[in-house]
Design a protein that fits this description.
It contains eleven helices and three strands; from the N terminus they run αβααβαααβααααα. The chain is mainly alpha-helical. The protein has one domain: Rhodopsin 7-helix transmembrane proteins (Rhopdopsin 7-helix transmembrane proteins, Up-down Bundle).
Length: 326
Amino acid sequence: MNSLIFSSRKVVMDEGNHSAGISFILLGFSEYPHIQVPLFLVFLAIYTVSVMGNLGMIAIIRIDPKLHTPMYFFLSHLSFVDFCYSSVLTPKLLEILVVDIRTISYVGCMIQFFFGCTLVITEIFMLAVMAYDRFVAVCNPLIYTVAMSPKLCTLLVAGTYSWGGICSLTITYSLLELSFCGSNLIHHFGCEYSAIISASCSDPSFSQMTCFIISTLNEVCSLLIILGSYVFIVVTIIKMPSAGGLRKAFSTCASHLTAITIFHGTILLLYCVPNSKSSRLFIKVATVFYTVVIPMLNPLIYSLRNNDVKETVRKLINNKLFSQSM
């Protein structure tokens, strides 16, 4: 009996050691070789705009003292999360579009998944925190600066990062329990969850259950916070007597609602699609949208619809032009 247990443990250890030393082949969009270069140019342009937009938003918020408010504090962290998230996956996507060797190590794959998952969950709750901030600003404007104190804002942001890390660590640990053998092909441009599961040759039930529970809990909780906040906001807006107050309240929420709709809509659509051969292309396209395109759209949404940001940018440009003319 003891020898049987020892043999079983040895097999498990051998499988774990074997998995730790393997490499995955990222297929990406290799089934469309004729559009590899155009895709590279498009994604490079989007990534460049995303990096410049998010870092620019952070710089603008830090430079202008008028933007040192809770709303822009959360927005700067949203920009930071978007910058990090696009930088986790996009460089590898660009690499596999132009090189013949499209491999990623087992450790590198798990690290990429961990950080990607952490940042997605962090953004989910960062958007929820921003909804709560808008609720306080619209429904209780007189006590807004007191209610949203710097200490509370810092705790809320730290909580989103910490919760994202804890959830991601749990899901990543469930993936580490899987064994990989055979061709180790990943039908994706990165270490996306369903693609890793498909490459495994062991029973993924525990990991799938873990991911389902955590994903459902996070999505439901964040959406309840957002919906609850906006129900109170709508009720408050309806009761406003002046058109000017209504317009101002709507303008403070429009950008945030747009960002929420795009982000959560894409996430829900992606995870409602069954993991099958026929849906692989759709999954890859949807993943490109929320990992590459959305991080570019968020700073554009908040800058184009925000008068304070546009005014700060205008001042910076005018000051630059004035200094050059001198």
